[in-house]
Amino acid sequence: MSLPLPRGRYRLLLAVPLLLLALYIFSPSSTSFRPFGISSPYWLPQGLEGHEDLIGPVDIEDDTDLSSGIPVADAPTSPQGWEQERPTVPIEISHPGLRVRLHALLTRPVLPADAALAHNARSCPLAVHDKLVNPDQLKGQREFWAGVSEDDVRSRREGIVRWLEGLEKGGVDVVAPELGYGEQRRGIVITAGNKDTLQRAITSIKLLRGYYMSPLPIELFSFPGELPTQGLAELQALRVTHRVLTNQQKVPGAWKNFHIKALAVLLSEFDEVLYLDSDVLCLREPSYLFEDETFKKTGAAFWTDINKDHPENAIWRLLGRTCDPTEWEVDSGAFLISKSGNGGLNLAALHIAAHMQAEHEFWFRLSGGDKDTFRYAFWALGLEYVSAPRWMSILGYEDNGKFCGLSMVHYDLSHPPNTLPSTPPSPLFVHANLVKHSPPLSPAQKAFQTLKRPSPDYPASAPILDRAHYFVYSSRGGMCLDLELLPAPSPVEAAQDWEEEDEYGPPLEGKGLEIVTEQWARVEDGVYAEFPGVWVDEGGKVGGW
């Protein structure tokens, strides 16, 4: 989650020096989405006819999977009617499917900022998305977005291609050759390092190992010289492999160091990875997620954040896309990915995300940290992914009648087994991302006392949820997250913003939508009642840095 920071001492220092490009080397120290395919091996995406000299031969072997077009998860597609680009430099990538997709990226139209805004505001109205975007991001980056030139767009697209070419020339796989790519089939990857992030990670791992008895192998990545000897001993006792990201350093003065997440996933020994931030807590043993049919369709699953994209964001021009009003930004605190997914092209997407994170001084001004670079990477290649169908809730406590949310609750990818398909997915993760920013609570379990959410449980893509507005405020020297219902627009405004009613009800009118609270100990008949106490027993605490 990229939080809109409250005013005062928590303001983020945005000046970050340039990070040298990462070397991929490490040293160990001990709702449904339909898949898309092609009907002919001679298919070329729109705009590639006549460009075979640039992408090379596209003869397809019987076992080669070339998915076509922009999948349903990524609709709507590139603006129609605009002149396509005509790249002149051949793409030196051996995999034909990846060459086709990279050429499609280079040929997408390049729009001036004003034309792109006029186009994107039709699908993502300013009157709506001004309220749904991270307000600090909009205020701080609006001028930067407008200043991204057409030459910048071409240069950044070419930079993605050149990055992948350089990796392949250096002997690095950019496409996973087969299912099970990697030393081990599946496992968990965590990044942590300093004392507080390490302690949070150890608490999370203790829940997995001791309370849920998870057999999944776990790898923890850190910067060189970060982990104390005691921490290494604790990790070893928990059967965790520690890996050091050599040739990587923290960025001086940065609020957080987001730029190693994709690199850690790439360098892990696993094909299928459940990535967890140090402050993400599982609510059950997660091995079954790898067998979830929703995940297996694409090999990539993400969970939503509290904000939506803004039509002024330069990302639409950079990747040649149209703003999609149904999509939320991504909370990259937890995600599920198979490097061999999408015919092995998920590995290429991870490399692109790592490239964006290495060049964070540019891409993070579009994404608000690393979180949406993963989504951007899939957009760049036109690859399908899935988003958790149920929108997030918040978990916290009430103090003198005022709610203070300290965590995000994310839900499963599918409805519970042996239930009707209409049954909402169950809580799966607690992303305790504001617990560390709160002053101490007594008892600490109070941090997980009350759940707040929109009701009824519309699918996350339902436009009616645009009225459910999460926001951050300062309280008692800390930060809190809350949820409110935005006023419904007038009939005239609604008619201007939407052409027809959504299947879930009149868009934004909010009939039947309300904000509800419930005691965490009573959610799903008390299944999660023990969680706060176990978290404390395993070292969890409120506050930290």
From TrEMBL:
UniProt keywords, alphabetically: Golgi apparatus, Membrane, Signal, Signal-anchor, Transferase, Transmembrane, Transmembrane helix
Intracellular or extracellular location(s): Golgi apparatus membrane
Primary localisation category: Golgi
Signal peptide positions on this chain: 1-32
Bilayer disposition of the protein: Single-pass type II membrane protein
Recorded family membership: Belongs to the MNN1/MNT family.
Protein's UniProt name: Nucleotide-diphospho-sugar transferase
Organism placement in taxonomy: Eukaryota, Fungi, Dikarya, Basidiomycota, Agaricomycotina
